Structures are given as structure tokens and as C-alpha cells.
Amino acid sequence: MAGENYNAQEIKILEGLEAVRVRPGMYIGSTGPRGLHHILWEIVDNAVDEAANGYADKIEVVLYKDGSVSVEDNGRGIPTDIHKEAGVSGVEVVFTQLHAGGKFNNDNYSFSGGLHGVGASVTNALSEWLKVEVYKKTVYKMEFHSFYDAKKKKIISGAPVAPLIDTKQKTDKHGSFVRFKPDAKVFETVEFNLETIVKRLRELAFLNKGLAIRLVDLRDDDKFFNKTFKYDGGLVDYVLYLNEGKQNLYPLPLYAKTERDGILIEFALQHTDGYNESIISFVNNIPTPEGGTHEIGFKSGITRVLNEFAKANNYIKEKDVAFSGEDFREGLTAIISVKMKSVEFEGQTKTKLGNPEAKSAVEGATVDELEAMLKNKKNKAIFDAMMKKALSALKARNAAKHAKEIARAKSGADATKLIGKLAACSGKKPELNEVFIVEGDSAGGSAKQGRDRQHQAILPLRGKPLNAEKKRIEEVLKNEEIRTIISALGTGIGSDFNIKNLNYHKVIILSDADQDGAHIRAILLTFFFRYMKELIQEGHVYIGMPPLYKVYKKDVTVYAYDDNELQSAIDKVGRGYQLQRYKGLGEMNPEQLWDTTMDPQKRVLMQVTIEDAAEAEKLITTLMGDDIEGRKAYIAEYADFNKEDTFIDRVNV
Ligand code: TSJ
What's the confidence (pLDDT) of residue 396? Predict the structure, then answer.
């Protein structure tokens, strides 16, 4: 029986794993879907490290019917010999000692750590069982199980069933194989999400040039999935992928890879004829959607080089006119990826790089690399295109400044007219206040009557606000619906944005559960994403969830928010029930709207996040841009418009 005769030292080690089991959140953030995937990333990261260090070029991830998942690489194999201090095999150390990650690592090469990097032992501690095979001339095997200790009356997790054994079975393979089954007693859900895994593995394949990552899903015979992600162009392929469906200004992204002050720095960039800036950054293969020092250094480097080039070649003729950094980033798509030690994460979601040395290293490297490219005559057309784009951005910016001044003056004088539609709330504390942006005047009317007047403001939207994706800022500003939103929120937009002036800490989009409603929602999210990104990043944007059905009888009423809930609502109400399907918010009277959708005690809100900046960017471009074919394909694939869950992350009250 597992763990029956473990010795004193092992007991001590297992106590370490017990700490993980007692407080999983401390190690993996949550026991929700994110935490579940986190324990998979721990294992995948180890295999990717082996590849990044040059010892492996294939990784295979398999999802099985029994709920387990395996990861295999063709690297050197986890060390099998006895670890001197621990007195047990390297494999056992890796899976039973917390933070064992660094122990075997040749410190010059490993950049693990940071957001992930709590180690494979955490995965073991939170699994029902875990099996390891190491291929090194022969096949080595070891298993770990969690079991109920009747004497101690508690669950012991991650206990070795037996020490590592050499089966003596010959093999030509080399590498490591780890298969585990997440413990259903730990996680709220143990179902891996294929889309989440596809996204992350694709991202890892882009970030690690030439690495082949295969994903196989064997769980459902009808939905068999088998795909290999391999990009020989690495970051260049990543930028081309993000710019698919857009018009580029030069065919090939600029690319550099270098090292400075012990930091590995790699970037790729390409301009399109669009107006948005999309810089996606990574540290040790971990996305940093909040940016940080590496991103700041990268931007400064670009600004410095292009500014000097512009000056040296007299691109600006007028006096008193100068480029601003953002002019060089209009239409820019770029990836900046750094690898370094002792990473410090900051920010609201701990996804912002804090290390000051990363700024100077990245800035210096960017300047040197871009200058070298400038010197190469072959690149002349590229830099000319950049200058042309930047000049047009500069002109537009000056025009926009003018337009903004007008808009501002207007919102002063015309404030009452602009905010005329807004039914403000009486409370004076923004932290406690909410604004509902409601589709349609009739729903807006119900919301105004049904609301909590102290804390809830209502902003009804008539018609569709304009699509923010294809327009430059000055055109966005001309739209009345958008201007109303900007005035109501109080923060300003773009570079003027200041979260401190936010009038409502919850901005709740309330639209119908149909195609039109989804479109309005997508347009509003696009606008926030483009012009008030921090509003989303700081977690202020929500989506209200009106019910789809009302099931009722004399004195009982139960609302159902999706088709799954409908049956249980019918069961609750019982025989003789009546059913109403809501086609729109407008069909609800004020009391019903309050009861089902607005009452903070009962309602369901979805908080909008930018989980994955690259995917959000791509989704926005596809949904709102002008690549009609791509958009049709997307809509065909995700026929349900309500599934824009790249943004929509968690359910909150
Ligand atoms: F996370 C894990 F332990 F579960 C795991 C580790 C899972 C998978 C799928 C692969 C790996 C892994 C570990 N692949 N490759 C390695 N390599 C080492 O652990 C290793 C081997 C040799 C040496 C050496 O210095 O000789 C150093 C290391 C880190």
C-alpha cells in the first residue's frame, strides 16, 4: 500500500506537500480552472526549459479519458542517480521537495521561476496520482499516490509508492514522461480546457523557435484533436500571425536576438496601416500583460533610434514640431521577450516586470540592434515606411489635439446636453457607485425605475456606438454615444486617461442576449480595450447577465440564465409551470430587471479581464476589423457570440 513504510525523512518531506494541500491557493493562486491549468504549466515549463537549454526539440501533451494528462519531452531525462543531500533519486527530489526546481539546474542556463516555477512537487501534491518515466538507455519508473491515512485521519498526498526503479527495459528514446491526474477533492473542476491549452502551447511554440509541441486530446472520441505547433520563424512568425488579415507596411518583421547584462533579449516588430499599437511582452516565457520595465525599455529604444534617424534626415521641416514616441508605434505589432534571473513581478495581477536592470538592458539592446539594421541598405524601404507612417501619425495627433480641445470645451458648455441621458446616482463615493450602460431606451427606462438610486447610474444607449477598431481617435470622439460614455466615466481617454478620476468603480454593460446585443458589447469592449485599457486591467468592467427564461406558477418564480439552468428551474417550480422566454431586456418590467439583473445581492456579473493580450488583440481585430473572410470564419466557428471569453473571465457578484 502506498506510503505504508516510509521513513522519518520522507514523512518530513510529505509534510511539505501537505502544506500545499492545506493551502493550494498560496502555491497556485486558486483551485478554480486557472489553478488546475497551473499545475499542468508547472510540468510543461520544465520540459520547455529543457528545450530552451538546447537539449530537447519535441514536447507532447496528451489529455486522457480518465481525466489525467501527460507531458513528454526528448531531453536528457530527469536525473535518476541518488541526490547527495537528500539520499533519494533526483526524480524523487523533484516531485517531493518544494522548490526543488533549482537544485539540479546549472544556474547559468535556467531562467525558471516567477509566476510559475513553484515546482513539479506542487503538481504532485495536488494530484490523485502521478507517474514518471525517464528514458536513458533503459526505462526508469516511479509512481506517487495520495491516500487516506486511517491513523492520522487525513489525506497524505504525493507519497512515493516505491523508490525509482530501473526496469532494465532497453530504449532508444531519451527524455522524461510525466502523467498525473488532478485531485477532484482539491479542484472545483478537474476538466482541462482544450482552448486554454491550445493557446498556451501555441504561444510557447512561438516563443521557442523550432520547438515542436504536439497536443493530443483523447477524451472524447467525437472530438479527437491532434495538432503540432512548430514555428521555425519564432517571434517573426508570431508577429506575422498577429498581423494576419491586416495590411503590413513591409513584408517581413524586423527581428533581433541578443544578450546584455546577463539578460537574453529577443524582439520582432512590424508596422501595419492600422492605428493601434500592440506590444506583447514576456519574461521567461510568461506573458506580462501589464508590461513593465522591459516594455518601457523597448519603447524608449525604438523612440530614440527613430527620432535620431528622423532628425539626421530632416524628416520634419517645420519648427516647433516634434515626434512623440507614440507616433512611431501607430500600427505597430511587436513582441518583446526577455529571459532573466530573479524576476520581480509587480502590479495588480503580478504580471508587470519590476526589475529596473531590464529597462536599461532592453533599451540599450534595442538601440544597438535597430541601428545596425538602419545601417544595412537593404532595410532602407522599411525605415522609410516607418517614417512615412510616423509623420502621418504626428499630423493626426496634432489634429486630434485640436479636436479634443473642441470636444472638451463642448463637454464643458454642453455638459448637460451630453450627459442629459445619464441618470446619475446620488451617492458621492465612486468606489460604491456603478453605472449600467444599457442597450435601448425602453430597457434604459426600466433600469432607471428599478435601480438603487443611491449607487446605480443608468446610461441608456440608443443605436449602436461606432466601431472603435477602424477609426482614429478624432473620429471616435465625434460619436455622440462614445462621448457620452467618456463624459460619464470622467477618466478621459488614451494618453489623457487617468483612473483616479473614475466616477464609477463598476462599469456594467447590459445588452440583450442576441446577436445585436453581442455586437454592441463587442463594440463597447473594443472601445474600452483601445482607449481605456486600464479600466479593464484594473477590473472595473463587467457584463450584466439578464436571465433567458422565467419559469413560474401562482406564487413561485425561478429565473434561468442559460439553457442548462432551464431544466432545474422547471424541476424547482414543478407541475403546471409556465415558461417565458425573454427576447430582450425591454420585456422586463423595472421590478423584474432589478430582481434578476441589477440587485447586487442576487445578480450575476462577469468581470472582463485581459487574460491573454495577444489573443484579445487578435480577436478584436478579427471581430471588428475589415478582414471579412477571417471574421466569417471566426463567427462560423464560434457561432455563439456570447463566447468571447478571451476577455470574460470570472463570475462575480
Ligand atoms: F517537472 C517535471 F519534473 F515533472 C518534468 C521535468 C516534467 C517533464 C515532462 C520534463 C522534465 C524535464 C527535466 N525534462 N528534462 C529535464 N531535465 C533535467 O531535469 C536535467 C537533466 C540533466 C541535468 C544535468 O545537469 O545533467 C540537469 C537537468 C535540470
Answer: 82
